[in-house]
């Protein structure tokens, strides 16, 4: 009917998960794009603090007491005082898709000055296939105004289902603490109008601040690890999840895209505090990356859960010698899957798709 606002895409099939230790004032700026979606707010830190949700939003809010009540002893796998807590929101959601965003991320403008509906772009990314097996030099061939270029095998043009859509950031880029300390005034002003599939066999540093994913395809792999309070490492939550997720997507024949949409990041965290949280990760990752590059998942791993349990065994066997933290993490990976399956008993796990024709 003329004049009736169009129903936003995936209105009843997508939850927006927001971890917060601050406040939710940023939602006012996102209201035009988020108001028709259900929010899952994961309140970190002191559960006795009241987080005010702006009027007009449909939401559920979980604090640490709720997490402990719902998961019981399995709550031990959900981090405290780290944005990693957000993965609890993925677990309790009942929707097919998740979009997660940080509370210091705002609506960015494209080069024409138009407000960017980041959620709409993530949905487009997730609803169109990925091309992990052969790189298309004109970027995402499924976008309006693009296509497969000459020489692209027709046998591969169907693509594969997209499991993850990784968005980027204008203003404060997601730099690690050392880089941010060296370049405190660096701002990202470069708007690159591109979406591309991350090729199979290539890992990437997944940032959790502007991220969409298909929860039915890859949800159980999106565990953000043991970070923050009581842990020797922080702020590697999204990195850990990204390495595990990419490995499993490659095995399952699923795709991950990166690029548009941009959000405007006005970082609120302190680089000196961040350095303390990150520093073990900065040298551990020099061993973690070769580990993930060497992992082979057996063909018997036909679901994400089976892949993840197998991965936890390899983490224990091969990373446990780096630090006992990885033994704890391997156990927490198993607890996460047990909790996931307990809260999502009928969750149909996507069976493995074979990759391209051999
Ligand atoms: O203890 C905490 C700290 C933060 N949060 C919430 O998590 C997000 C991200 O926090 P913040 O914006 O302060 O951190 P950044 O340095 O910008 O974050 C980057 O590093 C990743 C952290 O691992 C993050 O995803 C990246 O964007 C905010 O919503 C905080 O409120 C928390 O819940 N608990
Ligand atoms: Mn931030």
UniProtKB/TrEMBL annotation:
Residues linked to a glycan: 150
EC number(s) per entry: 5.4.99.30
Molecular function GO labels: UDP-arabinopyranose mutase activity
Compartments, as annotated in UniProt: Golgi apparatus
Site (Required for activity): residue numbering on this chain: 150, 157
A Pfam family the protein falls into: RGP
Keyword Glycoprotein among UniProt keywords: yes
Biological-process GO terms, alphabetical: cell wall organization; plant-type cell wall organization or biogenesis; UDP-L-arabinose metabolic process
Cell division is among the record's keywords: no
UniProt keyword list: Cell wall biogenesis/degradation, Glycoprotein, Golgi apparatus, Isomerase
Annotated catalysed reactions: UDP-beta-L-arabinofuranose = UDP-beta-L-arabinopyranose
A cellular component term, taken from the record's GO annotations: Golgi apparatus
Biological function: Probable UDP-L-arabinose mutase involved in the biosynthesis of cell wall non-cellulosic polysaccharides.
Family: Belongs to the RGP family.
Protein name: UDP-arabinopyranose mutase
Organism: Vitis rotundifolia
